[in-house]
Amino acid sequence: MSVRELVVLGTASQVPTRHRNHNGYLLRWDSEGILFDPGEGTQRQMLRAGVAAHDLNRICVTHFHGDHSLGLAGVIQRINLDRVPHEITAHYPRSGRHFFDRLRYSTAYRETVGITEAPVDADGVFVTTPSYTLEARKLSHPVESYGYRLTEPDGRRMLPDRLAAHGIKGPDVGRIQREGSVDGVSLADVSEPRRGQRFAFVMDTRLCNGVHALAEGCDMLVIESTFLDEDEQLAVDHGHLTVGQAARVARDAGVRHLVLTHFSQRYSDPDEFERQARAAGYEGELTVAHDLLRVPVPKRR
User: Fold this and answer.
1) Measured between alpha carbons, how far is 140 from 236 in angstroms, rounded to an integer?
2) Mean pLDDT over residues 107-117, rounded?
């Protein structure tokens, strides 16, 4: 049975708190696991969340500030300690390759697993698999930063009443999906278009074109909301978003489920993030993330 869910490992921004670890997010997408922004302490958070090194297939780093990348050393060493048998690919801004190398080889360990490095240096699709594409968009932050978007190919939804009306049943259902027609009945006669799911991950950034492009039409948007709206100038100065800005992006993009995260340690009331997001006009599903939370990707329409 396929599982599509977000496992939240950490939700703090620059400074962790007693209740919030540095960043870390695992997207389970059917048989694959994509780890985003492993900040300090991610290896331990994986243990607490029941996530194993064997669950990882890709690591995506948005940028090389410590709260988004210092956990790489421990995660990579755990991958090697556990002798993960399958390929793991790491994506990160090409301009930060020296940081990745330093973290990957920060201490002595026995390297048993070859991690494939595939840095990102431009907007656009950079991974294509049978089940999804991965796209990057440059963001606006004091260091080079990219957001990521996963898109499932569009498909077809079989319609039982039309199948019955055309006498298509049993093995012929699979055959018409594979071949496109059976005994003069086309796939279009017994199905309808099914839109592929879309997921986006947007961390440290000011408002920019990349944010809107990543969010457009997403089923789930995971986005930083470091500051409350009254601290908008701080957000602009430091290259971040407010909760109201993040919510308006989601509203205008038609996002179905908005996940807010990356909160400044200055705030003690998480409910205020929900209040301000709703005040900004976002009416879809809304999650103010906390550590070790599991959030299902919305079912297909």
Assistant:
1) 10
2) 95
Q: Which two tokens stand for residue 104?
A: 């990957």
Residue 124 falls in which region: left (phi positive, over 0), alpha (psi -120 to 50) or beta: left
Tens of pLDDT, residue by residue over 218-228, are 999 999 999 99
Q: How far apart are CA 98 and CA 141, in angstroms?
A: 19
Q: What was the pLDDT predicted at 301? A: 79
**What 3-state DSSP class applies to 72?**
helix
| Radius of gyration of the chain from its Cα atoms, rounded to whole angstroms | 21
Catalytic residues: 67
Pairing state between β 88-91 and 198-202: unpaired
Q: Give the pTM.
A: 0.93
Its sign, for the CA torsion 38, 40, 42, 48, is negative
Cβ-based burial of 33 (10 A; exposed 0-12, middle 13-18, buried ≥19):
buried
Q: What is the dihedral of CA 278, 301, 128, 251, to 10 degrees?
A: -20
User: pLDDT tens digit string along 271-289?
Assistant: 999 999 999 999 999 999 9
List, edge to edge, every strand of the sheet that includes 133-138.
Answer: 124-128, 133-138, 146-151, 198-202, 220-224, 257-261, 285-288
Distance CA 117, CA 178 (A): 35
How confident is the model at residue 170, as a pLDDT?
93
Is residue 76 within 8 A of residue 115, CB to CB? The reply is yes
Tell me the average pLDDT across 156-175.
Answer: 91
